[in-house]
Design brief:
This protein is mostly helical. The protein has a domain of 58 residues. 51% of the residues lie in helices and 0% in strands. The chain is built from three helices and no strands. The chain is elongated and about 85 Å long. The N and C termini lie far apart (79 Å). The model has no long low-confidence stretch (mean pLDDT 87).
Length: 88
């Protein structure tokens, strides 16, 4: 940096608020954080976004609102059919 720049009287600007988001401090296990960081890097998204999505999914699961987007495997379908046939 040039010597003629004088930042001695500079002040830090206010943080720009995000709508519907709140800044907090949270303590996470190192293993959890590393897992989210590596998954996020592979997916090309931010790790905080992935943590937020995981927490949202956990809340929705606890309310019974989540439907799995994963396809049903043949083994899972057989198991479901056997359970339903036994119940009938």
């Amino acid at each position: 940096m040039r010597k003629e720049y004088d930042f001695s009287k500079g002040r830090r600007g206010a943080a720009v608020p995000s709508p519907s988001k709140t800044r907090i401090t949270i303590m996470l296990d190192d293993e959890i954080l590393e897992q989210f960081r590596s998954r996020a890097e592979a997916a090309g998204v931010g790790y905080q976004t992935m943590i937020n999505a995981a927490l949202r999914e956990a809340i929705e699961r606890s309310k019974g609102k989540v439907t799995d987007d994963k396809p049903v495997t043949a083994a899972a379908l057989r198991k479901i059919l056997r359970e339903e046939l036994r119940a009938a």
